[in-house]
Specification:
It is a multi-pass membrane protein. Helices cover 50% and strands 18% of the residues. The protein is of the alpha+beta class and 535 residues long.
Length: 535
């Protein structure tokens, strides 16, 4: 039988409560830090990928618009010169040459300009080093332009001199409408001209981002690696989409097996494609640098937190250690019991506050992500997804409501005249007008582009018409921000009067909107026939 002495002297290795609690707390803090680090890595990765795709698409769009404007200006320059030549058929050779040379030098659009008569003979050419006047046309592109008798832009091709060039021309017709030849301009894509100045200085930035331009058949026209000029890359996924006239951004693998984040846009004037790409490995390098920087900032607080956690664990274990010491003295000596003390209030308060801070931080981040997912970043209005969810919810509840679809009249001309920044301000003014014109229970949405939607809960068609007209008149009477009124057209539909499904209801309102456009814009149209008194 075991005696008390045997139990006391039993050799067993034991872990102290202070060590156990310290280890558990340290492990918990380390796991929390690891989870937070992994979550931060994934969040930063997604944000960096999305930001890169958005920036690349935005840059591709801007470059395609620049190229589109450039080609329109080049076409206008040819048309102007063709008009001068057509109105002065008796112009002598010297004056004709001076006109061509002046146009070439002043615009910088073309490397050479030629005036050709209806028989295909070059009457004047500037500069004179580009060819000899009096000789017939020799290239297939110029012959095709002469036979076509219409404004012409060739596909880029390799000339007899080994240059990558393209040819633009404008036909010449006299006052009687008789065809008198053409004015043509040659662009050396890899030599000195405005186009090469803008798109030929293609450098790779510190993040590895660069752009390239492809022709309508997928051949490289501008690329940082000049050895690849004229290479056909039509198997590239984004190049295929530019050849189909699409715009967008996505993750792709190019024809050389390199993973890229690409933004792409099509040039409307000539069906070329502009692609801006960032190698994914460079994006990961940036991500890893960000994570290392984050670790440098997080590690000292983490170490301090770990030390504080161990200290706190030992403070929590101290009462139990004191109790163990007290019990160990029982039977050996006289023990004076200490006065009772409260050991839990302070620690419980600290723990509660720590958890609440962590929960508040997670909730704040979740709210931010949720808000970003349901709102339009430019105007602050609800986005299309929110609109569809609200419509389906009200229809499921069989709650009647009206829908107003709004579209700014001739918004493209505002962007073209005043710039996209002013266009954005117009969209913001309309969004603010919408919000001030409806009730808190109503929903204002940006559907896309310059098209907006208002959902009016439990609102009849006459009431919706009043709201629509109030918004329309407010915009019509305002001169901000372009210095003159901006008008809009509106279409109205009602659930369940006009349709029982969300998609059909929106289509009814959208058709009413375009009926307003057809009827002269700056008005409100109700779908189908709906009579009501305005008294």
């Amino acid at each position: 039988m075991l005696t008390p002495r045997d139990i006391i002297n039993c050799p067993q290795r034991k872990i102290s409560l202070a060590t156990l609690l310290s280890g558990l707390v340290a492990l918990s803090v380390a796991l929390t830090f690891t989870i937070q680090l992994i979550a931060s890595y994934q969040s930063k990765k997604r944000a960096l990928f999305d930001t890169t795709l958005t920036l690349n698409h935005s840059n591709a769009m801007k470059m395609s618009l620049t190229m589109d404007s450039l080609f329109k200006s080049m076409r206008g320059s040819l048309q102007y010169t063709a008009g001068i030549m057509a109105n002065n058929p008796l112009m002598n050779e010297e004056i004709r040459y001076e006109h061509l040379e002046l146009m070439r030098r002043s615009s910088g659009y073309f490397n050479s300009i030629v005036a050709v008569d209806e028989t295909g003979i070059m009457r004047s050419i500037a500069p004179q080093t580009a060819g000899t006047a009096g000789k017939p046309l020799s290239t297939d592109a110029s012959k095709e332009a002469l036979a076509l008798r219409k404004p012409y832009t060739s596909k880029p091709y390799i000339s007899a001199t080994g240059r990558l060039i393209m040819f633009m021309s404008e036909p010449l017709f006299d006052k009687d409408g008789t065809y008198r030849g053409l004015i043509g301009g040659t662009i050396y894509l890899q030599e000195n001209n405005i186009m090469n100045t803008i798109f030929g200085s293609n450098n790779i930035d510190e993040l590895g981002t660069y752009f390239f331009v492809v022709s309508s058949d997928g051949s490289l026209l501008f690329h940082p690696d000049r050895s690849r000029i004229a290479e056909n890359v039509s198997r590239n996924q984004v190049v295929i989409k530019t050849m189909q006239g699409q715009n967008g951004s996505e993750q792709v693998v190019n024809t050389r097996g390199v993973a890229l984040l690409a933004g792409y846009s099509t040039v409307q004037e000539n069906n070329w494609g502009v692609v801006v790409v960032s190698p994914i490995d460079k994006v990961y390098e940036q991500l890893n640098r960000d994570i290392r920087t984050m670790l440098l900032y997080m590690l000292p607080p983490f170490v301090l937190l770990m030390l504080a956690a161990v200290w706190l664990a030992r403070r929590l274990a101290r009462p139990f250690v004191s109790l163990a010491d007290l019990v160990s003295k029982l039977g050996k000596e006289k023990v004076d019991l200490p006065a009772p003390q409260s050991h839990w209030n302070r620690e419980a308060d600290l723990l509660t506050r720590t958890i609440m801070l962590a929960v508040a931080d997670i909730r704040e981040r979740t709210d931010q992500l949720t808000q970003a997912a349901v709102t339009d970043p430019l105007t602050g209005l609800a986005n299309r997804r929110t609109m569809e969810k609200a419509m389906n919810g009200w229809i499921a509840e069989q709650a009647p409501f009206s829908i107003i679809v709004l579209d700014l009249d001739k918004f493209k001309s505002i962007n073209d005249t005043y710039g996209h920044q002013v266009g954005d301000e117009v969209l913001k003014v309309l969004a603010e007008t919408m919000k001030q014109s409806v009730r808190p229970i109503d929903i204002c949405c940006r559907y896309g582009g310059e098209e907006f939607v208002i959902l009016l809960a439990r609102t009849s068609v006459p009431e919706a018409f009043i709201v629509a007209e109030r918004i329309r008149r407010t915009m019509e009477e305002s001169v901000e921000p372009v210095g003159k009124p901006v008008t809009l057209s509106l279409g109205i539909a009602h659930y369940p009067s006009h349709a029982l499904a969300a998609e059909a209801l929106f289509l009814q309102a959208d058709q009413a909107l375009y009926e307003a456009k057809r009827m002269g814009r700056n008005q409100t149209v109700i779908t189908r026939s709906y009579e009501f008194s305005t008294e």
